[in-house]
Amino acid sequence: MEANYERTRYEARMRLRRKKKLIKAAKLLSYRVLKSLIFVVIGMILGFLLAHRTTGTPSESENLTSVVPKPEIPVVSDTPKEIQVLLDPGHGGKDTGSEAAKTPEKSLNLAIALLVEEELKNAGVEVVMTRSSDQTVSLDERAALANDNKVQAFVSIHQNSFEDDRSIRGLEVWYNDVKSSGGAGSKKLADAIHTYAKQTAGTSDRGTVQDEKLKVLRTTTVPACLIEVGYLTNKTDKNLIFSESYQKELAKNIARGIQEFLQSFGTSAK
User: Fold this and answer.
1) Quick one: which of 11, 53, 89, 240 could link to 110 by a disulfide (CB 3.0–4.6 Å)?
2) What is the model's pLDDT at position 28?
3) Does this model's pTM top 0.85?
4) How confident is residue 61, by pLDDT bands cut at 50, 70 and 90?
């Protein structure tokens, strides 16, 4: 009896141990399965996020980055291009020039000079302006810009006026072949521009004028001339000067004269 009782107790203890081992093994298995599932779920989430970032709709900033081209870094040449022509819109800034019309002379000079610049650049001529906006530039600065760069032609553009006699009208091209070291080249430049400018429809021609007093011509050491487009005090001239079609035709003819002058030196374009 006692032996049977001990054997029964032993078997009960063994069954309890096996039961505990099974429970422990089940818990361990459940933990491992749960851990694996967690890694799988994390992997799926990360994969989804990466795939969405690659193929999904980009953010607003990403759109801007992809659409807007990267700015190109300008290449600066060690040797600047040779300036062939220096265009000088007369007056500017505080110096309004003639105020015989509602629009000051300085604005008309700039408008025509910009058209001449466009014509020359389209022809491949290296051209620079003494001013491209309404700014004050002294006469000394204008001459120095021409002299320092040794330009092949300096052309100043102006409008004339004469209150004492409003019947006077017409185009004039001024030059100085005496005191300017541009000398004979200045007369040749004036003649070339005059030849074409006077052909502009409606223009009244007053010819070329030799003058030793104008500072901008007297102090330049390169071929230089000054164009008086017309008289703002004359009604006919004023209407022409304010005409867009006249400005364009005149600018084209001035550019043709400049080009002919440059061709005489074999340097019409670069």
Assistant:
1) 89
2) 57
3) no
4) very low
